[in-house]
Amino acid sequence: MSTVQEAGTIFHGVQWVKVPDPLATTESVRAQDYAKPITGGYKLEGCWWGTRDRCVYFVSSFARTELGPKIDHDGQVWRYDPRKHTLRLEVIFKHDPASDNPEYDAPDNITMSPYGGLMMCEDGIGDQHILGTTEDGKVFKFAKNTVNIGTPEEPEYGELAGAGFSADGRTMFFNVYNPGITYAITGPWRRRR
Predict the structure, then answer these.
(1) Structural domain includes residue 2
(2) pLDDT band for position 193 (50/70/90)?
(3) Residues 32, 23: contact at Cβ < 8 Å?
(4) How many domains in the chain?
(5) Is 1 a member of any domain?
(6) Which of 111, 77, 112, 74 is nearest to 93 (CA)?
């Protein structure tokens, strides 16, 4: 999937196949024999079931050619629609090898805002953010992680994780994995029109 570099790319006729040994007791999942050819993704992490649109959103945090994928990227967000059997690339962070601190990289945990758009926890190099998308797929920085678990001279930031919303949609929660802090952010959130 790393070869797909344009948001909006859609694959039709996508089918799930049964994993012969899902616990990988004797062979890694990717190396098992499947009844049909499969397409793999690299560094697949966050996943969210969108109750509003009844689609699955999942994240490929990054891909690097030296680790096996054919093309580098700094993150992809995919949407699988089980009713239409389609897979669509919603968001891509293209890799810039010249940047030590890309604007966006390594999305990980993902959730959907109750008012549309996705929210992602960045888990990459340099600055760490909660990222959001507008309903038309534009990415924005929502919050910056400033919890320094390193030193002032060599800062290191704890991993952002677990973004989600309360049932009433008024509060967004997320964590800084180390040292173990949970934040609650209340709106007002922009409502859908």
Answers:
(1) no
(2) very low
(3) no
(4) 1
(5) no
(6) 74
